[in-house]
Amino acid sequence: MFRLALTALTLLIGGLTSSARLAAADPLDCVPASAQVVVVADHPRKLAEAITGLDAFKDAQKLAPVRQIYDSAQARRALQLLAFAEKDLGAKWPELLDQLAGNGVALAFHYDGDDLQPLVFVAEGKDEKQSAKALELIVGVIDEELARQGSKTSVKRTKIVGVEAFSVGDDVHFARIAATLLVSNKAANLEAAIKTATDKKRQSHPARAATLGLLPKNPSAWLWLDLASIKKSKASKDFFDSTRQDFLQTLVLGATIDTIQRSNFLALGLYQEKTGFRLALRMPAGRTGMWSELAMHVPPKTAPGTLPLLEPPGTIYSHSLHLDVGYMWKNRDKLLSDEMRGNIEMGEKQISKILPSNVKLGDLLEMWGPYHRVVVVNHDQRPYKTEPSRKLPAFGYVGSARDKKFGPSLDPVLRAAGLIGTLQYGLKLTELEHEGVPLVVYRFPENKTLADDPDGLRFNFEPCFAVVGEELVLASTVELGKKLITELKKPRTSQPTTVLLKGKFNAANAGQTLGDFADALTTDSVLTRGIGLADARKETAGLVAFVKTLGTVAVELDITESEYRVDVVWNIK
What we know:
Helix content: 40-55%
Shape: globular
Number of strands: 20
Number of domains: 2
Number of helices: 21
Structural class: alpha+beta
Radius of gyration: 29 Å
Distance between the termini: 42 Å
């Protein structure tokens, strides 16, 4: 029943958005201090119109899975309710959104043990009369629906601190204070919200000042998460204590976990930009006070955070990361437990025994540089005449060197690994030259069957490596190896930045890869939905075309002296 009431209310109140606030009541005035998670939009209409006005939104409605949702009984019922509300209240949904929630909406949660539970939903309207009329409409719709279902439950009216309130069973409770509409799934929560709203001595909820003081200006919608209260739980304390003992967590997420531990809250903001949308995450803790051993994630102030992205033609995804493997190895006494360090050092000795006589794994790790770049790229031409049953894109890695001996020292190691592959799989070694750079290549024979690879997945791979200056290049195909050499030989047009991680996803190129799976997608549609082959192919083609229109998504992570920052930018155009 809570879903029923919330659906009806949502039809009248709508989505999320914002710009500069008007001189009006704040929806957070009704949010109890116990709220630990708050989602707010200060003006719901603009973002709702921005989203529904997107070509991508309109095109998505033409896709078969989305059409199925629209054709469902629940969706048709919801659209009928919306049309009824527009007629009864005398306005279309954008105007209704302004009237009923134009001064902001807020959705608050709190933790009950380890579970996140809803606390209250607040819609701060501009038109008190329209809010009153809308509430009576909601009550009428719910009563009619309950009667249609033959339920013995009905909407009950009561008073809470002098405010008329409504309930449907134990799980739906709502009320109106002037132009403010309140909804909760528990009577106690609604009572707390009403008392908060009517208490003249109440203190402002800290979410707005904290969040908007940290985020960039004018978010369309924003979220505040109270880390301070969450970290008081035993589970949180145990997690942070165990992190420093867990090498893999430290390696992958050490800087992020350390920042969370030192931050009182997390802020997340959604922004509409000229070419798309931005999602900004911030925490009020940075390099100052960071666990010193996490220097493997955060370079000195004088050193770049990452190198520019590599984007050869056909790039689906490009990634650039700072991770100082050499620092990690040198400081293993501090970063690893005694047991883990002992195991790794024993493994290092064993591996070093099978390496060429003049190479030790520990030395290679110390010579390895802190800058790593990865790319996933479409093929211009498949590497073999024999096509695999599942076509995969090419991928490559470019790593920097701290010592000029890194490349020459690693060369015999890679050749030794290739020799093992030659003996086991019949790989054929060849050496090419591209733009003056030697490229060592291993190819699978096409006239030899492998029992371990009946589907021919190996024909996606033509592994190769090269050393360009002081950077190591590894690629899954010769074509990509050559492209990466060309990229590295170009004069650098963009400079390194302080950003510690960056990535970029290209939907147009991803759509091309998705097209390689068209047969599998078509077969799945035929088998799971029982449609004809021609219709399934048409739907698959539509999905591929849709993905190609979605632009690019870029992500950046930076840790300044006082802030942790993540920005995700969807560039639609």
